Every structure is written in C-alpha cells, then in structure tokens.
Automatic annotation (TrEMBL):
Protein name: dTDP-glucose 4,6-dehydratase
Biological process terms in GO annotation: nucleotide-sugar metabolic process
Organism this protein belongs to: Arthrobacter zhangbolii
Source taxonomy: Bacteria, Bacillati, Actinomycetota, Actinomycetes, Micrococcales
Domain NAD(P)-binding: 5-305
Entry annotated with the keyword NAD: yes
Name of the top EC class for this enzyme: lyase
Length: 332
C-alpha cells in the first residue's frame, strides 16, 4: 500500500483527489493543510479512518514538512493560494505559499529521495486569442499574467531546476479550469449557482467572451494518478478534456438549469489583465500514458454540480456573505 502525502487536501481539487484516490486505489493518505479561508475540513468527512490522516499545518513549516515527507512514498502537491482576484488585491500570501511553500517541500523531497508530483495550472502559459488555432502544449513558452499565475510559474521552474540540478524525482502537471463539488464560492461556477439560490443575479466580468477549458475534478484526479503511476521523471504533462466554453455561455447554461431567463445576469467591472482564452492540447498525456477523460458531458456536469450545491448548503453557506461583501467593494 503506497503512502501519499497530499498537500492542500482540504481545498477544492485536493479534496476531490483524496476521495477519488481512496475509492480507486488502496493508498493510505495523509493530508497536510493549513485550513486557510479556502480549506474546509468538512470536505474530508466520512473517509476510512484506517487509510486517512489529517494534519493541520503550513507547507512553509520546514520541520513539519521534513517529518511528513520523510514518511511518505509520494508527495502530491496541491496546496496553493489559488484565486486570481485575491492575488490582484493582496499578492503576498501567493509568494509565501506558492513559492516558499513549494521550495520547502522540494527541499524535503530531495533530502529523503521522495517521489514528488507538482500540481500546476495552464495559466503559466498566459492566454490565447479567441481565433488562435493553436492550443497550449508542453512546449508553449511561459508567459503568466497575474500575481497568482506568475507564482505558479515560479514554482514550476523551481521543480524543474531541482530535477535537473539535484535529481529530484518529480513530475509536473498543468491543468485547465476544474469544476465539480467542494469548490469555494469565490470561484466562477459556484459563485453563480449560489447567487441564483440566494436570489442574486449572476455576475459576468465584462462581456463574458473569455474562454476557459473546463474539466471535471474527477478527470483531473484520474490524470494525476496515472502520472504518478506511469509518468516519466522530469516530464511535464498537460491535463485537459476539450471543454472550451465562453463565460457567457456558462452563465446562460446555469440559468437554464436553474429555471431562470437566459439574460438574468449582470455585467460587472472586468478583472484587470483578464486572460482571454485558455485551451489545452493533452495529446502527450493521452498518447504516452493512455489517459482519457470520462466526464465529457458538460451540460450534465453542470446539472450535477448545481444539485450538489443545492443539497450541500451547510457546506458553502458560512463563506457566502463574506465572499460577496468582498466582491461588492471591488464593484464585482
Ligand atoms: P483551493 O484554494 O480550493 O485550495 C487550496 C488548499 O490549500 C486549501 O485547502 C488551503 O487551506 C491550502 N493551503 C493554502 N496555503 C497553504 C499553506 N501555506 N500550507 C498548507 N496548506 C495551504 O485551490 P484549488 O482550486 O483546489 O487548487 C489546488 C491546486 O490546483 C493549486 O495548486 C492550483 O494552482 C491548482 N490548479 C487549480 C485549478 C482550478 O481550476 N481550480 C486548475 C489547475 C490547477
Ligand atoms: O485555468 C486554471 C485556473 O482556473 C486555476 O489555475 C485557478 O486556480 C482557478 O481559480 C481558475 O482560474 P480562473 O481565473 O480562470 O477562474 P475563476 O473561477 O476565478 O474565473 C473563471 C472565469 O470567469 C474567468 O474568465 C473570470 C470569470 N468570472 C469569474 C468570477 C468569479 C466572472 O465572469 N464572474 C465572476 O464572478
């Protein structure tokens, strides 16, 4: 039985990964999570006690990290400050967690010779024009736009340098926008769903033409497991499920499934530096590691996600008022 150390496992994608990995492998999992505003211990309820341990702590805490990494077979590193809008208003925590936190983990991993998988984002590549026929590949040059994406780019480069200079046993994956259960209400899809539940009109930044390449969190998890199992050390894999949609279409889909008129949304102040389009070419992952996404019906995925937020109000309600108050100050 493999022992996985999952950082950021109380966040959106990390918690989905923990549920997925416990259900689909015989691994034992320890989660290390600071429980920032974005972490929620309720996302990890009901897991098998003999295979799951939770440690509250900071990935910048070198002593704690050293102990935990030393007793793991594989580290799966999700912990990050993850929200672009927050990074535009207060970048400092992004530098601490995304850069220093990653540095702390890879130093421990090299000391112990522990296999390391670094979770990153397609945002490190910057953005594409709407009519660009190209998509991001592993060869696309880095060109991040926001404090968030630049710190993720920095963390990727640290991992690459530790592989080359110190022989760190690491792989990297850069994934597109995830959706599914347990996502914080600050993010686009859950924000609009919970707004409609609360009788608030969805808020679209600018004209809503920006395109994101949506993938279900479970498909991200299956890809990460495949890379841990079969990935080549030192390699980067792009994870995507051919899910390009513009924001206006996504809002209209949510409104349709929630019984509202298609135009029942507000256009609000745009995000500064807002990336126009992300699009992933995941050929390497598919052809070299034989991975395929399973959740290709976005319409159905959105319906299921709406149902999850309707059924789990106790999970998101404590964050909703504070999140909307923050957006209101920003005119969003
Ligand atoms: P999230 O904000 O929902 O969760 C982040 C988790 O990390 C939280 O539980 C938080 O408490 C924890 N954390 C933050 N700082 C910490 C610290 N210093 N020490 C320990 N724990 C800390 O984020 P998410 O959306 O689940 O993203 C997870 C990872 O996936 C990030 O690395 C992100 O860059 C990457 N990613 C996200 C997406 C997406 O669509 N959300 C897409 C591609 C990649
Ligand atoms: O591409 C992967 C990235 O996806 C991850 O690295 C990030 O961690 C994750 O947060 C996500 O970044 P985005 O900035 O794309 O996600 P967000 O949910 O904030 O916004 C999605 C799109 O919706 C974006 O074009 C901005 C827009 N938006 C967002 C909010 C919150 C709105 O139009 N209205 C909103 O209220």
């Amino acid at each position: 039985m493999q022992k996985l150390l999952v950082t950021g496992g109380a966040g959106f994608i990390g918690s989905n990964f923990v549920h997925y990995a416990l259900a689909n492998t015989d691994a034992a999992i320890t989660v290390l999570d600071k429980l920032t505003y974005a972490g929620n211990i309720a996302s990890l309820q009901g897991l098998p006690e003999d295979r799951f341990t939770f440690v509250k702590g900071d990935i910048c805490d070198a002593e704690l990290v050293n102990t935990l990494v030393g007793s793991a077979d594989v580290v799966v590193h999700y912990a990050a400050e993850s929200h672009n809008d927050n990074s535009l208003h207060d970048p400092r925590p992004f530098l601490d967690t995304n850069i220093i936190g990653t540095y702390t983990l890879i130093e421990a991993a090299r000391r112990h010779g522990t296999r390391f998988h670094h979770i990153s984002t397609d945002e490190v590549y910057g953005d594409l024009e709407l009519d660009d026929p190209e998509r991001f590949t592993e060869k696309t040059p880095y060109n991040p736009s926001s404090p968030y994406s630049s710190t993720k780019a920095g963390s990727d480069l640290l991992v690459r340098a530790w592989v080359r200079s110190f022989g760190l046993q690491a792989t990297i994956s850069n994934c597109s926008n995830n959706y599914g259960p347990y996502q914080h209400v600050e993010k686009f899809i859950p924000r609009q769903i919970t707004n409609v539940i609360d009788g608030i009109r969805p808020k679209l930044y600018g004209a809503g033409e920006n395109v994101r390449d949506w993938i279900h969190a479970n498909d991200h998890s299956s890809a990460v497991l495949r890379i841990i199992e079969k990935g080549e050390i030192g390699q980067t894999y792009l994870i995507g499920a051919d899910g390009e949609k513009n924001n206006k279409d996504v809002v209209e889909l949510i409104l349709k499934h929630m019984g509202q008129p298609a135009d029942a949304y507000d256009q609000v102040i745009d995000r500064p530096g807002h990336d126009m389009r992300y699009a992933i070419d995941s050929t390497r992952l598919r052809s070299e590691l034989g991975w395929e996404p399973q959740f290709s019906n976005f319409d159905q995925g959105i319906e299921d996600t709406i149902r999850w937020y309707r059924d789990n109000e106790a999970w998101w309600r404590p964050q909703k008022a504070e999140t909307e108050a923050k957006y209101k100050v920003q005119g969003q």
